[in-house]
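B., you asked whether I could sanity-check this one before it goes into the benchmark set. Here's the sequence:
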Amino acid sequence: MSSFTDPLVLVFLGPRRWRVYSAFSYYVGDETGERVVVPGGFETDGASIPRLLWWLYSPWGSYAKAAVIHDYLYRETCRPRIECDRIFLEAMAVLGVWWGRRHIIYRAVRMFGWLARKGPK
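And here's what the prediction gave me:
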């Protein structure tokens, strides 16, 4: 069953830059029992939402843990982009993000995530 196992503790580094203070994990909701571990020291910007939209979608909304997992998956793994994005959608559901909000964010990631993606498409 999908779940987050640790609190997300961050250290502010500067505008739009945060460092994960201690590792935290997410269990992916498939039958593999796979766990994604974001190590302490990983740097993130939270949800990569354009500043113009912050009044509607904060970079640190109720989906913050899912956004950090997604950043980590985009930068540090060899997973296909679609898989990273699906894990992000699932993680937002686990966090109780309202269906409409998580699907709007997911669609934006599907349309524009390629701009930030490093590695396999």
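One thing to flag: Strands lie at 3-4, 10-14, 17-20, 24-27, 35-38, 43-44. Otherwise nothing jumped out at me.
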